[in-house]
Amino acid sequence: MVVDIFIPCFIDQFYPETGFSMVKVLEKAGVTVRYNKNQTCCGQIAFNSGFWDHAKAMGEKFIRDFKDCSHVVAPSASCVGMVRNYYDEMFYNSALHNEYRTLKKNIYEITDFLVNILNVKDTGATFNHVVTWHSSCASLREYGLKDEPGILLRHVRGLKLVEMEDKETCCGFGGMFSVKNEPVSTAMAAHKVEMALKTGAEYIVSTDSSCLMHMQGYISKHNIPLKTIHIVDILASGWEL
């Protein structure tokens, strides 16, 4: 199987190691990974900010960059949710309507792809830490992830997964929401971090690096003994041991 990967802006600019981790996980699962160097943003930030013309232009490029791919996989439920849910509003009955409909069926968030397409539950990872799970708004409400992340984490050797209260509550990032409504956004991050601390976990884990960056900013500013990590980095860890 050949898989084309999409590397979102946050991964590309701030967490490139997570992109490499995804490649490692996919290759270990037996697939051939391709990367189109011409790919750029899916347009989510522009779309959510109300700049639909800019978002549509970016979306047109995105569709053309991945139009001939049978499987597109990304380490972001947020970006994939954007393509699956909101491209309809921009490309319905347009010249790219058919290409978009095909892409919509073929693009996946990484944990969904591993569990439900490749039937992989154990990546062979080892991570000797206590972690708690943050369900991002995008993964839960837009993409519709359910048990896939938990299935994968429970097969990681040495990992202990503990659930926090309010695990499905927003962390306060919300893209431009965190910029335009900073006090509310910060209070939401504080609540989420407090819930994570109560579990005794060492790490907060999620599918979305934007949420993790938001919470890590609060954690670092207040010197809280807690860390954040993308699930893909866990799934690719410990293979040398």
UniProtKB/TrEMBL annotation:
Residues 3-83, 131-216 form the Cysteine-rich domain. This is Protein containing cysteine-rich domain. It holds the Pfam family CCG. The lineage of its organism: Bacteria, Pseudomonadati, Bacteroidota, Bacteroidia, Bacteroidales. One of its GO terms (cellular component) is cytosol. InterPro entries: Cys_rich_dom. It comes from Lentimicrobium saccharophilum. GO terms for molecular function: oxidoreductase activity. PANTHER family: LACTATE UTILIZATION PROTEIN A, UNCHARACTERIZED PROTEIN YKGE.
